[in-house]
Structures are given as structure tokens and as C-alpha cells.
Amino acid sequence: MSKSSMIASVKNFFSGISGICTPELYRVLKKGYSKSNLMSDAMSGVIVGILALPLAIAFAIASGVGPEKGLYTAIIAGLLISVLGGTRFQIGGPTGAFIVIVFGIVREYGYDGLATATLMAGVMLVIFGLAKLGGIIKFIPYPVTVGFTAGIAIIIALGQVPNFLGLTFPEGVKEPVEAWGKIKLYASSITSFNWVSFLIGGLALVICLYWPKVTNKVPGSLIAILVTTILVKALGLDEKFGVITIGAKNQIPTGFPIPELPNISIEMMRKVFQPALTIAILGAIESLLSAVVADGMTGSKHRSNTELVGQGIANIFSPIFGGIPATGAIARTATNIRNGAFSPISGVVHALVLLLIMLIFGKYAEMIPMAALAAILFQVAFNMSGYRSFIKLFKAPKSDVTVLVMTFALTVLFDLTVAIEVGVLLAAIFFIRRMSEVAQVDFVTQALKEDDEEISDSYNLGSRQVPKGVVVYEIAGSIFFGVVDKFKETLEQVADNPKILILRMREVHSIDATGIQMIEELLIRSKKQNTQLLLSGVHTQPVVALTRAGVMSMIGEENVLANIDAALNRAREILGIEMVEPSEMEESPSVSWEKNLDKPWLPNHANGMVAESTSEVIAEKVAEETESKETESKE
Description:
This protein has 635 residues and is mainly alpha-helical. Helices cover 63% and strands 5% of the residues. It has a five-stranded mixed sheet with strand order 3-4-5-6-7. Strands 1-2 form a two-stranded antiparallel sheet.
């Protein structure tokens, strides 16, 4: 590559990076922002900030850290996600999806391990965004997403049973991470059941469920917190009946933390790399899913790569201020939209409201009963379980049901990281098997002799004369590593060493390295048998792949044809017999990159032109033309 082309490539790279790193907030403000827009954002931001307060505290405690860390996360990460993200209405902060993975990290490695994992996940998310992987994240199989989400919901609900029932554990006993261990511990501690805590939790749950029927302006979770806290303190239930409050286990500071880098070591980074990757993938899925929901509610369109960069930066700064992992929150984002939000400023207001509440009313939050928080998380778990989607998926193909059940079971019984890895792997294996089952290679020449019904297909060989010494095979489906052996077995049946072998590829839209290798091996074998290989109906992606691999030059561009008519005429040309003009036969459709040629059986380097139309080559050609013009002007 020449110097000028390298410069052009670098410029294109940084131009793309600049676009990705331009936040949605900047674009909105650039188009114009009025006083009425500010009022709308302020109103929705205040409401969402109030809604986020009990959730931030509940998610933090359920994750095994102090409630203040949930507040720090909602403030810092929530602010940065709104300022730097690629979604207009996204509200970020701690979410229920992270509870399982965060609890496990804290239990095994402490907060330093969690901070390290969160920071690493943030870096990964930034890399995902800059590498333009936003679209790829959406390809996580649906059964995997439904399976681990339902599993997380079960774990969240199970983890709140002791708080709801007021159970206490023997001193020094730590709550297990896995579900079965939790169940055994709860069963052994059932004698410590506190009926007053149970009633407080039940009251909070009833308020959460039925308050929306009264009004949607004020969140039911906040009303549940206020009512139960006042009830517990007014009647002295914490002192008389041992109802556990946040203050009994944690203290909420009334000041803001000083930014400080976590204790990071190479050894710790090695230990938490896998959980960090899980946090990054989970955060990406949740944030982009929330963005898609927002798009559907408003008709807007998010920029996934910019959103990932914003999420990544938020997760880098969150542990520096003592926070935990954050992502886009679907419920809070939907609430933001329903209350009239206009721009990301509403997310900024939501973060500022939380900051003021923490600084002014933080000490009162310690009075909140744990049973009330458990009730809120029961509702969160139920809402995120997606039980309707879970049940509906049992009507899907057996392979999808298997992926769903395995992912769900592994999440509940073992580990979320393992569940996602195994789920994606299983889904990939089943997909490859399905693709290989539908892919096929047919010996068209022989089939025509045996089945006269094929003549009714106007694009078929039945309406054409196949010269003696020519055999035609047709491939249907993508040529990739999962089906190559199947293709090889059929192609090895080529008998009598024909003079011309036409490989018809009109139904092949993609090819990978293994498929390219198969074509190359077929070409080498054909040359040894003095057989000329022709490719027919080759689409753009295979053309580009074959050209880059050097196989196109081995075959010869004149032997890679647009359609079967062109291929048969090329075969006649090689055999030295008279060619047939298209007007004398049923003309078959040509692939788009050769349809305008006067003689489709003479490509005239059309294949090479397609290969040169990729973005990399275009950039190189532009640079070369610019350099040529500069040279001419100097002369």
C-alpha cells in the first residue's frame, strides 16, 4: 500500500471514530434547545430521579455492597451515560441484571475485585463501540437472552427471601452464591422467621402492585418505602420486634466520595477477566435493548456504537467514585419517555436529583426496612422474568428450547458467565447444523436426464443444450465450514473426467475460508484431470472473497461467469463449437454486477471491478488518484 493510501485510510479511520464519539446530547443541542424543552426534561428528570432512589439502594444491597455504592453509580454513571451516550432518552444506573454476577465477584474477590472488573468491562465496552460491534451485540440468540434473564430474575427473588421473612443467619455464616446453597441455608434458618418483617414486606408488596391503579405520576416503590419506613419508626417495630433496617447493616454517607483509583493488580485482572467480559456483554445487551425499546416508543433512532462508548466511559468512572457496574435501565427509560422527556438533559437532571437527595436526606434512608426493599425487588424480578416469552418459546424448534432450558438452568444452578458462554455456543452449534441440513449440491446434468419436470423451470438447464463433455453441479446455501464435507462428498462423484465442470452458484450468497479452500482444491484436482472449472452465477461476497484469496486469478476471470447462459457459452468457446446468442434461448437472470454487459459470457474484468468496490480498495484508489493529480500539478 502506498504512502498516500495509508494516509487516506488513517483519515477515514479517524473520521469514523469522530462520528462514533459524538454524543447524542451534542447533536440535540446543535439542532436547537428551547426553554419549554428544558422544562419538559426537568419534570421527567425529577420523577425518574425519585423512582431511581429506592432501586439504586435495593440493587446495591442485593449485590452484596453498601447502599451508597448504588447511589454513587446512579449519579456518576447515570450522568455520563446521558452526556456521552448515543440514545436520546436513555437513563442509566445499576440494574437487576447485574445482581447475580456482582454478588459473586464481591463474595469471592471483595470490592477491589468488583472495581477492577467494572473498570475492565468499561474499557471493553469502549473497544466494542470503537470497533463498531454495536450491531453484532444484537445477534445474541433470543433463547439465550430469555433464558439468562429469567434465571437472573429467579436468583434476585430467591436472594430477597431472608430479608422478606426477616431470617437471620448464625454469626460468621456467609450467604452462598449458588441457588441450591441459598435454599439449604434458608431452610436451616427458618426458625428465625420474623412475622412482623413479613407483614411489613407484604404491605410494601401490596402497595407496589396496586399503587399504579391510583396514579402513575408517583412510583409505587417510593410510596411503599415512605409508608413502611414511617410505620416502622412510628411504632418502634425495629426495636420492639427486630425489624431490620438499612442502618442496622450499612451507613449511608451524607457527603460525596473523593475520586480514587481502585487497587488494581495484574493478578486480580487475570482472576476477574471472565466476569468482566460477562459484565461488558450483559451491559451491552441491556443498554441496546433499552435503546431499542426507547426507539419503539418515540420513533427516534439510537446509535449503538456511540451508546457502547458512553456506557464504557460510565463504567470506567463508576468504580473510581466507589460505584458498581451500570447500564441502560429499561423501566426508568420508559418512565422518562412517558413523562415528556425531550433530550438527554432529563438524564442529567435525574442524576442531580439523586445527588441532592443523597446529600440532604441520606441519613433518613438508613431507616428503610429491608423487608420493603425485598418487596420492591420481588416486583423487579417478576417484571424482568419475561415469563410470557419464556413459556411461548417452548413452542419453538427443539434446538431453541434446549438452548433456553440450558441457559436458564446454568444461570440458576451454576453461574451467569457459564450460562451465557454455553448458551451462545449451543445456539451456534444448532445454527450450523440447521444451515448444513438445508445446504445441498445437486448433479444437475444427471438430474435432468431422470426428471422431466425440471424443464418447466425457465431458469433451468432443461430448456438449454448442455454440450457433450460438460457437467453441471449446482450448490444451494452458504459455503462454510459446516457444510464443506457434504459438498466434497457430492463433488467427488464427478465421473469420466469431463472436459468442462460448471459449478453453478446462483444460490450461494456467502463463502468462508473453508469454502474457498474447497474451491481451490476442486480447481487443483480439475487441472490434474485436464478438466476446465467454470463458476456460474457468482454473487458479490464470494467474488470479493475469492479475489482476495487469489483463487480468482487461479481460475481466471474469464471463467467466472454471471449466469448459466454465459457459462455454457464459455464452455462452447473452450470446446471450439458455435456459441448460442441469448436471443436464441431462455435468458437466465444475471447477478447485478454483470447485468449491463453486452456479452455476459465475456466478463471483461467485471469480477475484478466488484472486488475493487469494497471500502478498503475504494479508499486506496481515491488516495492514488489524489497522489496522481498532485504529481501532475507539480510537473
